[in-house]
Amino acid sequence: MDTSAFDADNSVSCRLSSIIPDVCKTEDCCLGIDEAGRGPVLGPMVYGICFCPISKKEELKGLKVADSKTLSEAERETLFQKLDDAKGFLGWALHILSPNTISTSMLQRTKCNLNTLSHDTAIGLVQFALDSGVQLKEVFVDTVGPAEKYEEKLSKIFPGIDVTVRPKADSLFPIVSAASICAKVARDHVVKNWKFVENLADVDTEYGSGYPNDPKTKAWLLKYLDPVFGYPQFVRFSWSTAQTLIDSKAVTVHWDDDEEDGEKAAQRLANRSMLSYFSAPGGVTNPTQTHRFFTERRLKSLDTL
Asked: What CATH number should be reported for the domain holding residue 97?
């Protein structure tokens, strides 16, 4: 799978897709939706769809797709290649949600929780298929949140399409299993080929599964916690695992915002304000002492707005 479009800038989200088979534009089709990487504190979450004519369901079954979680990495790669080779009747699309996108969405002023983000991404992929000319009649989805409410929501947004939302849909419906395989293969590729924009030199790639309870993941999080600037963008800094480590291991700083007088609060508590890291002692900007966090992101201090 070619994920180079995302690898080129993994700070933002990215959509990838196969060609749309001509038969999917003329025959009634079914579509499955599933995700990979919902729980990990490291790396992206990937949503995938697969679609094919309803008349080709038996051919899809013949590919012997299964829930990606029950397969080895090698088995997933082999099955994805089979799916991709079936381009005469089967298509797929992916939406890769970067860790940065996930965290900023969850922590912005108008917060967007993971369920809402998942729903919006799934809806966007169904709309992408429709806009591409796929004649959708059936949609099968692995549930996020209460299945009945999610099914009702999707049915209202896409009237005329028969929507089925079920727990463990990836083990019940082959078209969802196919979507699960596509999503998981994409996430595996992206994590394996991750480019750290923070220039971490010979970064240790033994970060385990990425799940918070994995000892290797915990050790990696401790190793790469910058005491001032936190984590590289590979980490979902909105996850409680990361937040807890930042609160307990990082330097205590105060941000200037509308709700608190950061400079005065910092002085009162004998801590440094976050703004102090932008300037040299005495308040005079000194580019030679700028931390690499700012130079790598081409950030500069401004005298006026």
From this structure: 3.30.420.10
- To the question of whether residue 35 is assigned a binding role by annotation, the answer is yes
The kind and range of the H/E element at 152 are helix 147-157
Please report how many Cα atoms fall inside a 13 Å half-sphere around the Cα of residue 257, on the Cβ side.
5
Q: Count of domains in the chain?
A: 2
Could you give the CA distance from residue 179 to residue 17 in angstroms, rounded to a whole number? 12
Owning domain of residue 261: 215-296
Q: Angle, to 10 degrees, between the axis of helix 147-157 and the axis of helix 114-131?
A: 40
One domain, residues 164 and 235: no
Signed CA dihedral, 146, 147, 153, 154: sign only = positive
Task: Indicate if the pLDDT at residue 34 is higher than 70.
Answer: yes
**DSSP SS3 for 89:** coil
pLDDT tens-digit profile of 154-173?
999 999 999 999 999 988 99
Helix, strand or coil for residue 230?
A: strand
Q: Is 151 annotated as a binding residue?
A: no
